[in-house]
Amino acid sequence: MFVAGVLLSEPVAALLRRAMSDHSAQQELGAYEARADRDLYGWSVDHELVSVAGISNDRPDAELLHLATSLEHERHGHAGALLHAAFTELALRQLVAETDGDAVDFYRITGFEIASVASAWPGSRYRCTLRR
């Protein structure tokens, strides 16, 4: 079930850290509390938050900043359901994410259009776009 307005609690932060590098996690987590342009959304199963997404609130276009699912709930479709629910509930025209080769197939399967992009990061990078 889609959950809007998720607050940054320690369990949510622990979940989000799965999608962040160790050196930037504290700064990124702090940005969800300090900046008005970021919101957290979740997906719950049996009243347990199993997946969380950090999304910029630049509507009708938005950027997916972070996406994480608890280890025991990975590969059950919760993250994809969360993204599609957020896309619909927020009445987005497009939702964009940048990712690496490890996650690009998830976005492709979830219905995002995929394009290679140049990046300062090592390895391949992709711009993934879900459009209305």
UniProtKB/TrEMBL annotation:
An example Gene Ontology molecular-function term: acyltransferase activity
A Pfam family it matches: Acetyltransf_10
Protein's UniProt keywords contain Transferase: yes
UniProt keyword terms in alphabetical order: Acyltransferase, Transferase
SUPFAM superfamilies, alphabetized: Acyl-CoA N-acyltransferases (Nat)
EC number, as in UniProt: 2.3.1.-
Residues annotated as domain N-acetyltransferase: 1-131
PROSITE patterns: GNAT (PS51186)
Signal peptide span: none
Keyword set includes Nucleotide-binding: no
Protein name per the record: GNAT family N-acetyltransferase
